[in-house]
Design goal:
The protein has 769 residues and is an alpha+beta fold. Helix content is 57%, strand content 14%. It has a 7-stranded mixed β-sheet, sandwiched between helices. A 6-stranded antiparallel β-sheet has the order 2-1-3-9-4-7, with no helix packed on it. A 6-stranded antiparallel β-sheet has the order 12-17-16-15-14-13. Helix 11 crosses helix 21 and helix 24 packs antiparallel against helix 27. It is elongated, with a radius of gyration of 33 Å.
C-alpha cells in the first residue's frame, strides 16, 4: 500500500525527452538540408519538428488550464500554430526546440525524489499479541478492541493506544516525539501506538482500536497535509500571466493595423519567451546542481524557487538543532574517587548494553582513552541498568530509585541534572553511589552560525517546534536567539502550528523524525535531515540534507535565493529584449525567420547569465585550505581530550567549597598541573598556529581578536591560581582570606573555558567538513 503525500498533476510518461530528441533531430536535419541547397527537404524537416511539438504543448496547456492558470506554454502553442500557418517553418522548429528543452529540464528535476508514505507505513504495527487467560495469540492489530490485554515484547512496536499493567514499560518514543532518551512508563500510565519497547516484555490494556490510535492518526495527518498542499507555480508561469496577453494584444494590433498576418506571426515569434521557456529553468536547474554538490537534494525546481522566497523557518529540536544522540556532559565523583575512574567503571559495565545512554558512556570513555575491563556475572534489568562484578566488588550503573538519604554530593548531582535537563547514570559500588555520569543532547556546533546565515539570507522568523519538555527547549531557544519556542507538541500540534505560520508567509519546516513527516508535508517547503537513513521525514520532504550538518540548510537557502535572483534577472532581461524586438517586428522591420534567429541571440545572453547559478555564492561558508582544515581537526580533537581538565577545575572548586583541607588543596594543585602541562600549551598553539590561518580566511586578525582576549584571560586565571598555591605552600595551608578568591578563580576559569571552547567549536571548528 503506497499513498502519495502530495497530489500532483498527471504527466505524460517520457514525453519531454522524446520530444527533445525529435525537435533536435528535425532542426539539425533541416539545417543540414538547407546548407546542401535542398530547401524543400529543409522546410519539411522543420515543419515536422514544429508539428511534433504542437500536440504535447496543447496537452500541457490544457493541464495548466485545469489547474486554473494559463502558463508560458500557451505562448509557445500560439507561436507554433502561427509559424505553421504562415509557413515560417525554421522559426517553428526553433520554438519547438526551446519548448522541449525547458520542459525536459523541469521533468528531470521533478524525478529527483519520491514523496510517499512508505516509511510511515513500514513502521506501522500490523500484529499484536493478545493474552486470554494463560494463552497468548498473535492477531492482526486491526482486530484489537478496547479492553484487550496485550503483551509487548522487547523491540516490538506498541500496536494500539493503552495503559501499562504490571511492570514498568521502558519505551523509545522517538518516532512520536523525536526525543532519543528512553521513557519509563509505570503501571497505570498511558501508552501511544508507534512507540518501541526498549526494555523487557510488559503487558498493557488497550484503550483504543488501531484506527483510533496515535500512529494511525500520524499517517492520516501526513495524507491530509499532502493532499491540501497546492503545487508550486513556476516562476515562468507567474511572468507569463502578464506577458501572454501583452504579446497577443501586440500581435493582434499589428495584424489589425497593417493587415499583414506575417507581421503578427513575427511578433509572436520574437514574443516566444525563451527566457521563460529555457533561461529561467536553466538558472533553477543550475541551482539544483549546485545544491547537490553541497549535500542538498532538492525535489524539483519549484521547491528551490519557493525556498528562495521563504520568510519563516520552523525547526524541530532533537536531531535538527541538537545532535539527536546523548553525549556525556560531565562526570562527578564522590569524595575519594576520581572522575576518570567513575567513567571507566561505568563504561566497563555498559559496554555490552544496547541502551542509547550506555553507548554514550562507552563512547566518552573511548574518546578519553580509558581502558575498560570485562565484568563478571553481568546482568541487565531494562529500565534500571546493568549490574556486574569488577575487581571482586559488585557494581551497578543505571538509575537510583531515590536520592533521599544519599550524601550531599549526590543530591547536588540530582539538582544539577534538573537544571541542565540532563539524564544521570549512577555508578554504585557494593550498594552505594560513588559517582555519576550526566548526559544530555548537545546543541550542534554549526547551529548558531547556520541561523545567523539564514537571517542574513532573508529569513525573518525562526521558531522551534518540539515534542521535548519546555525547560530544555527554552534553553536551546535562548542560546540560539529564536523568535519563539513551542514545546511539548504532538504531531497534530506541529501541523496546526505550521498551518498558522503559512497564513502569514512562505514557510519552511525542518525535521528529522517520523513525527515530523506530517508537518513537513504541510509546510510550503519541507526539509529533512536525511543523513541517518530514508525515514518518513525524508519521504515527506521537498529537500533532503544528505550530510549530518544543519549548516547545509543555510547553504540550501543561499543557493535558492541566488538561483531565483539570477532566474528573475534572466527572465526580466530577456523579456525586455523580446519587447523591443516585438516593437520592431510590429513595424515590419523583422521577418519571422530573422526574428527567430534574433531570439536565439537573446537566448545566448540570458542562458549565459543563468549559468552563473552554477558558481559559488560569496555569502557561503568560507573555503578552507587543506592545511587549515587539518589544523581545525587537530584542535577539535584536542578539545575532546581536554574535557577532563575542565572537570578537574570544576571538581577542585567543589572540593574547596566543601572544606579547605589537604585533599582539597591537592585537588587544586592537580588541576593546576593539568592546566600548565596540557591546556595552556593547547591555547598557545591555537594562538600562534590556528588563529593566523583562520584570520587569512575570515578577513584579517580582527576576526579572531575576541578569542585571543579569552586566551589572555585563561592564562591570567591560571597564573592567579599558581600564586595562591605558592602562598599556601609557604604558609602550610591557604589563609582564610585566600579561599574566596581561589574558589572564584577556579569557578571563573571553568566558566571561561566552557564558553571559550563552545565559541571556538561554533565559530571556527564548524567551518570544517
Amino acid at each position: 500500500m503506497n499513498h502519495a503525500l502530495r497530489i500532483r498533476p498527471p504527466r505524460l510518461p517520457r514525453t519531454e525527452p522524446a520530444l527533445l530528441a525529435v525537435t533536435a533531430a528535425a532542426l539539425t536535419g533541416g539545417t543540414v538540408a538547407w546548407l546542401l541547397g535542398a530547401d524543400g527537404v529543409a522546410d519539411l524537416c522543420w515543419a515536422l519538428g514544429s508539428a511534433a511539438a504542437v500536440v504535447p504543448a496543447v496537452a500541457w496547456v490544457l493541464e495548466a488550464l485545469r489547474r486554473g492558470h494559463a502558463g508560458v506554454d500557451l505562448i509557445a502553442v500560439v507561436a507554433l500554430g502561427g509559424t505553421l500557418a504562415v509557413r515560417e517553418y525554421l522559426a517553428g522548429a526553433l520554438i519547438a526546440l526551446m519548448l522541449a528543452t525547458g520542459r525536459t529540464l523541469e521533468a528531470a528535476a521533478q524525478r529527483r525524489a519520491s514523496r510517499d508514505l512508505r516509511a510511515l507505513l513500514e513502521h506501522a504495527p500490523r500484529t499484536a499479541r493478545r493474552r486470554t487467560a494463560t494463552e497468548v495469540r498473535t492477531v492482526p492489530s486491526a482486530e484489537v478492541a478496547p479492553g484487550d490485554l496485550l503483551v509487548v515484547g522487547p523491540g516490538e512496536v506498541v500496536p494500539v493506544d493503552g495503559r501499562v499493567t504490571g511492570a514498568t514499560a521502558v519505551l523509545d518514543e522517538s518516532v512520536l516525539t523525536g526525543e532519543p532518551l528512553a521513557v519509563h512508563r509505570p503501571a497505570g500510565e498511558s501508552l501511544r501506538s508507534g512507540a518501541v519497547n526498549a526494555g523487557g516484555a510488559f503487558e498493557m490494556r488497550a484503550t483504543a482500536t488501531e484506527r483510533d490510535s496515535t500512529y494511525a492518526g500520524i499517517v492520516r495527518l501526513a495524507r491530509q497535509a499532502g493532499a491540501e498542499s497546492a503545487p508550486v507555480v513556476r516562476l515562468a508561469d507567474r511572468y507569463a500571466a502578464w506577458f501572454l496577453p501583452l504579446s497577443l494584444v501586440t500581435a493582434g494590433l499589428a495584424w489589425l493595423v497593417t493587415g499583414s498576418a506575417v507581421r503578427a506571426v513575427a511578433v509572436l515569434v520574437v514574443a516566444t519567451p525563451c527566457p521563460l521557456l529555457l533561461a529561467a529553468p536553466v538558472a533553477v536547474v543550475s541551482g539544483l546542481s549546485r545544491a547537490s554538490r553541497l549535500g542538498v537534494v532538492v525535489r524539483d525546481g519549484g521547491a528551490l524557487e519557493a525556498l528562495g522566497r521563504a520568510r519563516t523557518l520552523l525547526l524541530d529540536k532533537t536531531g535538527t538543532l541538537t545532535r539527536g544522540r546523548p553525549r556525556v556532559l560531565d562526570v562527578v565523583a564522590a569524595p575519594g574517587w576520581q572522575s576518570s575512574q567513575v567513567l571507566r567503571l561505568a563504561a566497563s559495565l555498559d559496554q555490552f548494553s544496547p541502551h542509547v545512554l550506555a553507548q554514550a558512556v562507552v563512547g566518552a570513555a573511548r574518546e578519553r582513552g580509558l581502558r575498560m575491563s570485562v565484568p563478571a556475572d553481568l546482568s541487565e534489568e531494562p529500565g534500571h541498568g546493568v549490574t556486574g562484578t569488577l575487581a571482586g566488588r559488585r557494581m551497578a550503573v543505571g538509575r537510583l530509585d531515590s536520592l533521599a538519604g544519599e550524601p550531599g554530593w549526590a543530591r547536588a548531582v540530582g539538582n544539577r541534572a534538573l537544571l541542565d535537563g540532563a539524564a544521570v547514570a549512577w555508578l554504585s559500588v557494593d550498594g552505594g553511589p560513588v559517582g555519576a555520569v550526566l548526559l544530555h543532547d548537545p546543541l550542534r556546533p554549526d547551529a548558531p552560525r547556520t541561523l545567523r546565515r539564514l537571517r542574513a539570507a532573508g529569513v525573518e522568523r525562526l521558531v522551534m517546534l518540539t515534542g521535548d519538555r519546555p525547560e530544555p527547549a527554552q534553553e536551546v531557544g535562548a542560546v540560539l536567539g529564536l523568535d519563539a519556542v513551542r514545546a511539548g507538541l504532538s504531531p497534530a500540534d506541529k501541523v496546526a502550528a505550521v498551518r498558522a505560520e503559512r497564513a502569514d508567509a512562505v514557510t519552511v519546516m525542518v525535521g528529522d523524525g517520523v513525527n515530523d513527516a506530517p508537518a513537513l508535508a504541510t509546510a510550503d517547503i519541507g526539509v529533512a535531515m536525511g543523513a541517518r537513513g530514508a525515514t518518513a521525514s525524508s519521504e515527506a520532504a521537498d529537500i533532503v540534507l544528505t550530510a549530518d550538518r544543519v549548516d547545509r540548510l543555510a547553504d540550501a537557502v543561499a543557493v535558492a535565493v541566488r538561483s531565483r535572483r539570477i532566474a528573475v534577472q534572466s527572465a526580466l532581461g530577456g523579456m525586455a529584449l523580446s519587447l523591443a524586438a516585438m516593437a520592431v517586428a510590429a513595424a515590419g522591420l523583422l521577418p519571422p525567420a530573422l526574428g527567430a534567429l534574433l531570439q536565439e541571440g537573446i537566448d545566448v545572453v540570458v542562458i549565459l547569465n543563468a549559468l552563473r547559478a552554477l558558481g559559488d555564492d560569496r555569502t557561503a561558508r568560507p573555503a578552507l585550505r587543506p592545511s587549515t582544515e587539518a589544523l581545525i581537526h587537530r584542535f577539535a580533537a584536542e578539545h575532546d581530550d581536554l574535557r577532563d581538565v575542565l572537570e578537574a577545575v570544576r571538581s577542585a572548586a567543589d572540593r574547596l567549597s566543601a572544606g579547605a583541607g589537604p585533599e582539597s588543596l591537592a585537588a587544586v594543585a592537580k588541576a593546576h598541573r593539568m592546566l600548565t602541562e596540557r591546556l595552556l600549551p593547547h591555547e598557545y598553539a591555537e594562538e600562534h598556529e590556528l588563529y593566523p590561518a583562520l584570520a587569512a580566511v575570515l578577513g584579517g586578525p580582527e576576526t579572531t581578536a575576541t578569542m585571543s582576549r579569552a586566551h589572555t584571560e585563561i592564562e591570567r586565571l591560571a597564573h592567579r591560581i599558581a600564586t595562591h598555591l605558592a602562598l599556601a605552600d609557604a604558609a602550610g595551608s591557604p589563609a582564610p582570606e585566600q579561599l574566596d578568591d581561589l574558589r572564584a578563580c577556579l569557578y571563573g576559569l571553568h566558566t571561561v573555558l566552557r564558553l571559550h571552547f563552545t565559541q571556538e567549536e561554533e565559530n571556527y571548528f564548524s567551518l570544517a567538513q
